[in-house]
Amino acid sequence: MDKYTKYNLDDLIDDRDFVEWVIRPTQELNERWNQILSEHPEVYSSVKEASIIIKSLAPIEEEVSEERLDAIWARLSEVKEKRRKITFRSIMKYAAIFILLLGIGYVGFEQFNKYRIDKEFAMLELSETGTVILADGSVHHFNSKQNTLKQLASGDLILNKDTINENSDKTESKGLNQLLIPYGKRMKITLSDGTHIWLNSGSKLLYPPHFSGRTREVYLTGEAYFDVAKNPKNPFHVNTPNVKVIVTGTKFDVSSYNDDKVTRTVLAEGRVTVKKNQLFAKGVNLVPGEGAYYNKDHKDLNKGKADVSLSTSWVYGYLIFQGEPMSEVLKKISRYYNKTIIPGSDVQSISFSGKLDLKDNIDVVLQNVAFASTLQLINKNDKYYVKK
Fold first, then answer.
1. Which long-range contacts (CB under 8 A, 24 or more apart) does 210-219 make?
2. Whether the predicted pLDDT of 177 surpasses 80
3. Nearest Cα to 200, choosing from 221, 228, 219, 224?
4. Parallel/antiparallel/unpaired status of strands 162-164 and 300-305
5. pTM
6. Can you tell me the distance from the alpha carbon of 333 to that of 388, in angstroms, rounded to the nearest whole number?
7. Cα–Cα distance for residue pair 308/311, rounded to 1 Å
8. For residue 178, what is the enclosing H or E element?
9. What span, in angstroms and rounded, lies between the C-alpha atoms of 294 and 275?
10. Which residues pair with 205 in a beta bridge?
11. Domains in the chain with CATH codes
């Protein structure tokens, strides 16, 4: 294990065990690499960058054959040779070319150290503490329900009223900042280009301290409302596990929770293109009042009319429903307040329409839902049971 503490980016992408862990992780490999990262956080930046390169060459299939792994590893060797006198940004261009040569699917979204991010996020859910992890590896926490974060041109951030200084010596690699918002908390973010993002409860956002290159890329799980600063020369891309949203300057909502069956994009202003997150996928173009819906079970993407007010009401402190299944209503309330709500099997077929004021406490909100739907509400051991 000690040898990895001296590894740089070249060494990592040339190491077969590391490549196999990124492409085809097992419990044994996870335990091994998680121990390395836990004991030697100084290698995290190199591990993250190497993961980006390897993931960009990864096939979209869940099962990766030995032959595929050999082909990817061979291409990584070529990337390594190219890297001798070029920047990390250039490596990504070569990686994109090699994707075409290999003829494999493109995985546009992967958390670059999935175990570490998920582990941190699980801890957040338990501690009810939000976390900002900067590209330099420093970690900062926040406890309030409503939060603000402003990314300054200098690379520093203002988290609520506190200025966070970035260690520029450790961010030459153009790493990503990570925002982990547990259930029960929300955040408004201003990026360096002037884009505003509202992150809903239970969401994660990865973004660079500075945008460079031809596109502005961010990575999302959960839900966010975007007000993108206009820049036709540098389109803004929102990558989720299933779809990519491409814009130049507009307002839209993206909902991509892991436990939802549908990834939804609803357009409020401007125009966007939404497509599956894979190579050569055809996109659908949206105009205001339309939505794009990706079904995770059927793996299809369709568009249709959408009520923008229903999708974006949470940004303004409300939840508005129109004939929504009760199970989905209670799920959204649970996320917003970070409380366990258990619906009885006899309420699954009930739908709900109404407007809920999120400034009210959860007891008032659930009582209003129960009264409007003639349901019973029981609070026992800080868990809420809803039944007929």
1. 210/153, 210/155, 210/174, 212/89, 212/174, 213/89, 218/191, 219/109, 219/111, 219/176
2. yes
3. 224
4. unpaired
5. 0.69
6. 18
7. 5
8. strand 177-181
9. 9
10. 179, 220
11. 2-102 (no CATH), 114-308 (2.60.120.1440), 317-387 (3.55.50.30)
Helices (H) and strands (E) in the chain, counts: 10, 23
SS (H, E, C) 249-317: CCEEEEEECCCCCEEEEEEEECCEEEEECCCCCCEEEECCCEEEEEECCCCEEEEEECCHHHHHHHHHC
- CA 10 – CA 20 distance, rounded (Å): 16
- The rounded Cα 224 to chain-centroid distance in angstroms is 9
Cα 23 versus chain centre, distance? 19
Higher pLDDT, 112 or 238: 238
pLDDT for 98 beyond 60? no
Residue type for 332, please? K
Q: For residue range 269-320, list pLDDT tens digits in order.
A: 999 999 987 766 788 999 999 999 999 998 899 999 999 999 999 999 999 9
Name, of 66-70, 95-99, 207-211, 354-358, the range with top average pLDDT. 354-358
Q: State what percent of residues in the chain have pLDDT above 90.
A: 43
Q: Six-digit token pair at 385?
A: 């049971």
Range with the poorest average pLDDT among 86-90, 166-170, 322-326, 379-383? 86-90
Structure tokens at 210: 């500075």
Residues in a beta bridge with 276: 243
